Amino acid sequence: MAREEQTQKHEESARTLAKEKVIEAISTGLRVSSAAKAAGISRTTIYNWKDSDPDFKKRYDEAFEASTERLEEAAYDLALRGSERPIVAGGEVIDHFKVPEPRMLEFMLKSRKPNTYGDRKHVTLDGQLSTTHLSDEEIDAKITELQAKTTAKTISDVAE
């Protein structure tokens, strides 16, 4: 009986250590597969722990949120302050300057205010289109065809 208790304590200790490794890995920004590898377990084990252990789930979610906030801060810094570029003269780096990253700025604005800065795609179609028997490619082709007809009609209306 004592040996069985020792085995259980050892397994629990190993599980606790693995959970700590997962939380640490997630808090640094690693993905689930990398966190699982760091802890020597499978991704499925992490998901099972999240489902069955409320304390682990809470700590995991907090670690994930903290690492996401750091990513957001880095993206914000990159968008506004930019990345460092060298100034080269005579084949030598003599200084550095920062260049804002417009694509990152665009991304940040689109994600924060999608109604203002997001891509606008508004399609209004008249009639019926049955798509139950069509592949995705066929549906896309039908939509493109209807959009072209709508655009052609709009152009002819304006010309009149």
**Approximately how much helix is present in the residues?**
55-70%
Give the strand content.
5-15%
Number of domains: 3
Strand order in space, largest sheet = 1-2
What's the N-to-C terminus distance? 94 Å
Round the mean pLDDT to the nearest integer and report it.
Answer: 85
**Major sheet, described briefly?**
2 strands, antiparallel
Per DSSP E runs of 2 or more residues, the count of β-strands stands at 2
Low-confidence stretches are none
Per DSSP, the total helix count is 7
The dominant shape is flat
**H and E string:** HHHHEEHHH
- Rounded Rg: 27 Å
By helix and strand content, what is the structural category?
Answer: mainly alpha
What is the fold's blueprint, element by element?
Blueprint: H1 2-27, H2 32-39, H3 43-52, H4 54-80, E1 83-89, E2 92-99, H5 102-112, H6 114-117, H7 136-159
Antiparallel strand pairs: 1-2
Helix pairs in contact: 1-2, 1-4, 3-4, 4-5
Could you characterize the architecture of this molecule?
It is a single chain. The chain is mainly alpha-helical and 160 residues long. It has three domains: 2-73, no CATH class; 81-117, no CATH class; 121-160. The chain has helices at residues 2-27, 32-39, 43-52, 54-80, 102-112, 114-117, 136-159, and strands at residues 83-89, 92-99. It has a two-stranded antiparallel ribbon. The radius of gyration is 27 Å and the shape is flat.
Describe the structure using short key phrases:
7 helices; two-stranded antiparallel ribbon; 160 residues; mainly alpha; flat; 2 strands
